[in-house]
Write a structure and sequence with these properties.
This protein is 34% helix and 25% strand. It is built from 12 helices and 23 strands. A 7-stranded mixed beta sheet has the order 1-2-7-8-9-10-11. Strands 17, 18, 19, 20, 21, 22 and 23 form a 7-stranded mixed beta sheet that branches. Helix 5 packs across helix 7. The termini are far apart. The protein binds MU-OXO-diiron.
Amino acid sequence: MAVQKLKDDVYFVGAIHWDRPIFDELVELPKGTSYNAYLIKGSTKTALLDTVDPDKTYELIRNLETLGVDKLDYVVAHHAEQDHSGSIPAILEKYPEAKVVTNEKCKGFLMDLMPIAEDKFITVKDGDILDLGDKHLRFIFTPWVHWPETMISYLEEKKMLFTCDFFGSHIATSRIFGPKDEMLIYEGAKHYYAEIMMPFRTHIKKHIAKIEELDFDMICPSHGSVYKNPKFIIDAYKDWVSDRLDNEVLIPYVSMHGSTKKMVEHLGDALVEKGIDVKLFNIIEVPLGEVAMALVNDATVVFATPFVLAGAHPSIASLAYLANALRPKAKFASIIASYGWGGKAVDHILGLLTNLKVDVIDPVLVKGEPKENDYKALDELAQKIYEKHKSIGIVD
Ligand code: FEO
């Protein structure tokens, strides 16, 4: 994308990847993404904050040329992942005098991942300041958002925070401050949080407390929109990492011949009648990101599956594995399943949920199509979920 001025001497010089369909071969990108790199012109030194994915190196270089950058002193690497650091070797080739400024851990990762000579690095510690003349960039270590080496930086004179993946969103838009509809920004950031940041809630709470000691009026992440109203995204994050739960049951399901679907729909109706919201997601059809977003605040998850070769359907097993890795804050879980001749689908799923601190409510297993007694068992499950939600004060 074209260069965009954010404040005097501070520019967006990154790239938009409008048609990237998936990230890490895992995270679907229905709205594309961007790799936000920023250029800061100080009175004595010039710094590039992060680079772009190697697919877009040419855009970054074109933007630097547009700004007439013929000498670059520093390339700050907040994070070693290739979508931000993958163009560092090309930048060092174009600007051989530039040094890579990063922390010791990130330096190690960068040297593992790409050809950068050790003497090209300047390493910094938490709180160190990079002097650019009339501007000063302070480094703040924020490990585990979402790798162990991640850090952010604070441009003191401009009151700007550069947070790399932290507060990012996978949205391709030519509007640097995001789509006009704030809800699109919120949804994009929540999607990103759900799939990338959710396992690190505890770290994020501490980082937000640290960040809030600073005086800033703009957050510049490395994906998606720049926030001119930082409170908007900070408040959203505070909610997502808090212990607050929604009075909602997520029911991800697969149904091979319709029996599991009948169970899901009956349970969903029974819950709604009790004043509980539901999300019924056929995970063969619904993008994973939607499921992950529901996991951010939902109080309960009910996995619904047919038995396949004595276990859960592989797609549900895969989802349970992912949910376990994302460590959502759900307090309750159950399983409903339809089987033909037996098996261990319940043990299979529960065995995949070892990270979840959930109270498991008795599963409902049905042989073949659900019958009257089976529907009663589902009504009882709905009642038990209602009582659990009532016990934590999220339903009347
Ligand atoms: Fe956007 Fe972790 O890289």
